[in-house]
Amino acid sequence: MNPADALVDENLRLGELLATADPEVSVPTCPGWTLRQLLTHVGRGDRWAAMIVRDRAQERVDIRAVPEGKPSADDPVGWLAGSARLLVDAVAATGPDVPVWTFTGPKPAVWWIRRRLHEATVHRADASIALGVPFAIEPALAADAVSEWLDVLAARPAPEAGPALADGATLHLHATDDGLGTDGEWLVRSADGRLAWEHGHGKGAVAVRGRAADILQAVTRRIPADDPRLQVLGDETVWRTWLERTPF
């Protein structure tokens, strides 16, 4: 998977989904949002990341300063697609290995492509849920989105409400799609309130099994903890607490 190509393709897929939809439809998994706001959020976020990369920013950039941060009235879908391309071009021009600001600390510019790619995958799930259509995604892409999300969580401080996992407890996520191998299994642990994870198979306090697409939607709280597409084995309280303390 080339993340730059995948980012452009994912934004195109989101745009195709929204092109004929009523922009005022509510998005239940993003309370208070409409599809119009969801489209704006994704496109503006891509342009924000492009600005950070282009300017080699070393501190947070005000998203309100992003040029053309709102979709054009006549072609919002084209604006969305162009937003992803701006980020890809910015990374190529700046250099993928040049360090820039991120909310997890300085990272190579290319970090933003993978982050924005999976922002789009999850928000395409939001749009699919709002429109009542199936969320289709390649298992390998969904699995990478789970891994990327765990990376983001591992960079966060411990939640004020308490650790997402008790020290010594292990959460095992297992995607059941054929062909993923260890890329479709994750062992998540906690140490001093901070999360750490690795690919692998092992026993945990709780194991959650399902297709990679459903694991992704579960860990980002797009489907309920007890959704029938998931098989939860072990201490369900550990699974629910983890979800409550790791919001997207």
Automatic annotation (TrEMBL):
Highest taxon, organism lineage: Bacteria
All copies of domain MDMPI C-terminal, residue ranges: 141-240
GO cellular component terms, A-Z: plasma membrane
Domain Mycothiol-dependent maleylpyruvate isomerase metal-binding: 6-127
Gene3D superfamilies the record matches: dinb family like domain (1.20.120.450)
Gene Ontology MF terms in the entry: metal ion binding
PANTHER family: CONSERVED PROTEIN (PTHR40758:SF1)
Protein name per UniProt: Uncharacterized protein (TIGR03083 family)
Upper classification of the organism: Bacteria, Bacillati, Actinomycetota, Actinomycetes, Pseudonocardiales
